[in-house]
Design goal:
The structure is a single chain. It is built from 4 helices and 9 strands, in the order E-H-H-H-H-E-E-E-E-E-E-E-E. The protein is 63% helix and 12% strand. With 403 residues, it is an alpha+beta fold. The strands form 3 sheets. It has a 5-stranded antiparallel beta sheet with strand order 5-8-7-6-9, with no helix packed on it.
Length: 403
């Protein structure tokens, strides 16, 4: 263990939680016993009121059936009333449409009659002109061409008058049809209003029946609840059982919560004992006895001294035939003349410059090509001599046998 944080406040909390656990355990035992007492008391009364419950259930079932039937009748009557109201709205819309058609037909009749008057006047004029031209022609005062022209104009005027008469008759027929449709729509409106009045009366009667059936059902359900209350010993027996069970569950939950609190405090106490994850040497120690520390604060560094390895930065031209497993010879500057045996463990994924803080990114390249270094991990395969110490950051000379 490297160091220990002050545990006194956590130990005090743990003692308090232990007392709470003892209290909650006693309350849990008492609540469980209360549940058993309430259940036995209600069971004795249950045997005496079984027949009353069955009778009340049968009466409630009959009342429920009657209430359901009355409610269905009320719903059907309401639907019929709504349909009658919609029919009235539709009939009113048809009346408005028919009235608009009547007005349009009346306007068409007036226009046709005006056209007829104009055509008849023109026909009378052309007939009179024809008579005069014919008389003049017989006397030789008018030419054959004038006679033919006036006769043609007269024929055209007479045809136009006949067409105008036919249009008057057609518009009058259309007006009669529009009046007939208006009368039919008004008849449909009166029929729809009569059906709506009858449907509303039926709806009121059905609602009254449904209300009476609900009242009977409520009385039957009240009798059933009374019988069930007697069936459980007293009217409050079910509530007492539910309350006692709820109290028991609440006591159990509080007991489990207290256990969880104790487990949490024990976990926090374990965090006060700070141990090293590896075997090594302490360095950069910055903590003192009695010092306040914060979460995430660096207190010391632990350097692993066993299973050390060497990172050799070979030139990129030297790793051409290099691969893991090859033997290596290491000379440590601190121990001149001593050679250690090792082997290549792995070759780095990129050059050292690529992993630097600001790697070089030359878009056009350098005029002078710089040889890059590739890190190679070498592990020591022999037992170190006595009193031979290796520390991170020491300089070595590594040679790898590539042939």
């Amino acid at each position: 263990m490297l160091l220990q944080l002050d545990q006194r406040d956590l130990l005090a909390k743990l003692e308090s939680v232990k007392a709470v656990i003892a209290l909650q355990s006693a309350q849990k035992t008492a609540s469980s016993a209360q549940v058993s007492i309430v259940e036995r008391t209600s069971s004795a009364a249950e045997m005496q009121a079984a027949s009353a419950v069955l009778a009340a259930e049968a009466a409630a079932a009959v009342a429920q059936s009657q209430a359901s039937g009355a409610a269905a009748q009320a719903d059907a009557a309401h639907a019929s009333a709504e349909a009658a109201v919609e029919a009235i709205a539709s009939a009113k819309s048809d009346i408005d449409t028919a009235r608009a058609a009547v007005e349009a037909a009346q306007a068409a009749v007036k226009a046709a009659q005006a056209d007829l008057s104009s055509a008849e006047a023109q026909a009378r004029k052309t007939a009179a002109d024809t008579d005069r031209i014919e008389a003049l022609y017989k006397e030789g005062a008018a030419s054959k061409q004038q006679l033919d022209a006036i006769q043609a104009a007269n024929s055209s005027a007479q045809a136009a008058a006949m067409a105008a008469k036919e249009r008057v008759n057609s518009t009058k027929a259309a007006l009669a049809q529009a009046n007939a449709r208006l009368a039919a729509a008004e008849t449909m409106l009166r029929q729809a209003e009569a059906r709506a009045a009858a449907a509303k009366a039926a709806e009121k009667q059905a609602q009254a029946s449904a209300k009476a059936a609900k009242k009977v059902l409520a009385q039957a359900e009240a009798g059933l609840r009374q019988a069930r209350a007697v069936h459980y010993g007293t009217q409050t027996a079910p509530q007492q059982i539910t309350a006692s069970i709820a109290q028991d569950k609440s006591a159990s939950a509080r007991y489990k919560q207290a256990l969880a609190d104790a487990k949490n405090i024990n976990l926090q106490i374990s965090y006060t004992n700070i141990s090293s994850p590896v075997e090594g040497v302490v360095g950069q120690k910055s903590v003192q006895v009695g010092q306040f520390v914060q979460p995430g604060q660096t207190l010391m560094a632990v350097v692993k001294i066993k299973d050390t390895w060497i990172v050799a930065n070979f030139k990129e031209t030297q790793v051409r035939n290099m691969h893991p497993g090859q033997k290596a010879i290491i000379e440590v500057d601190a121990y001149h003349g001593i050679k250690l045996k090792g082997k290549v463990d792995s070759i780095g994924a990129a050059t050292g410059s690529k992993f630097s803080l600001l790697p070089a990114e030359n878009a056009t390249g350098n005029f002078v090509k710089v040889v890059q270094r590739i890190p190679v991990k070498i592990v020591i395969t022999q037992k170190l001599p006595k009193d031979f110490i290796l520390r991170p950051g020491m300089n070595v000379v590594a040679k790898v046998k590539t042939s």
